[in-house]
Amino acid sequence: MTRTSILEPDPTAAAPADATRVAVSTVIFTLRRAADSEHASVFLPLVRRTRDPHEGLWALPGGWLDAAESLDAAASRTLGETTGLAPSYLEQLYAFGAVDRSPTRAVSIVYWALVRSDEIPGDDIENVRWFDAATLPRLAFDHNEIVDYALWRLRNKVGYSRIAHGLLADAFTLAELREVYESILGRRLDPANFRRQVENSGNLIPTDRFRTGSHRPARLYRYNQEVELADRGPLVPRH
Questions:
Q1: Which of 124, 155, 209, 237 matches a 20 to 30 Å C-alpha distance to 81?
Q2: What are the pLDDT digits (tens) for 44-69?
Q3: pLDDT confidence of 234, banded at 50, 70, 90?
């Protein structure tokens, strides 16, 4: 799939000299295995800018807020138009508005989203590339700072919510769940301790199904849907 229209806030667009413009950007996380690694890592898509300022640098997908749309609708629209993604989990992260973050006064309302690898439409979208969050290049504007904050929020939230569900299928093994935690936290976890903690949390419901393979069958679990994924998610975009 190729998209030739890539939205990106253009600080030189016509606007009153003293106007403050509002942009909406999204940090989208997924898990992937690099070709040279047996462990999954956190990846995110970036868009290469095709105009100044910062022409040629990578940036978060986003665009300007239209006067007649809500923030949630703008986040869904700009994300779909730039990356083709429509994640089920979408949460408002923070507002970034340092005076010197852009040549003209601009405030970015940043959302973050989680997608499973099988929800990604493909890697052939023009000017879009997926990067390992741990080894990002220098990004346009203050987007390195934004990604760092989103990662901090993700690592904190995984400890007290069922946010890991956004990166898993509806049914999963404890080993698959542990891999999600390890990828987000950036460290290995003791399997026995992890099993004991998650089984005692009340968040998981064991099913009667098993995953078979070269090893012993592994029971499949599902999340207790009565436990919220996050404070505001999953959101249904409002138009």
A1: 155
A2: 999 999 999 999 999 999 999 999 99
A3: very low
> Which amino acid appears at position 145 of this protein?
E
H or E element: which one contains 146? helix 143-157
Q: Which residues pair with 64 in a beta bridge?
A: 23
**Other beta carbons less than 10 A from residue 99's beta carbon:** 7
C-alpha span between 38 and 126 (Å, rounded): 28
Closest CA to 45 of 72, 26, 63, 64: 26
Around Cβ 236, how many Cβ atoms within 10 Å? 10
φ, ψ dihedrals at 210, nearest 5°: -135, 150
Dist CA 90 CA 27 (whole Å): 10
- Please tell me the distance from the alpha carbon of residue 199 to that of residue 208, in angstroms, as a whole number: 16
Q: Output the DSSP codes for 61-73.
A: SEEEPPTTS-HHH
14: its two tokens:
């016509």
Q: Does residue 61 contact residue 47 with C-beta atoms inside 8 Å?
A: yes
pLDDT digits (tens, 9 = 90+) for 24-45: 999 999 999 877 778 899 999 9
Q: For 180, phi and psi rounded to 5 degrees?
A: -60, -50
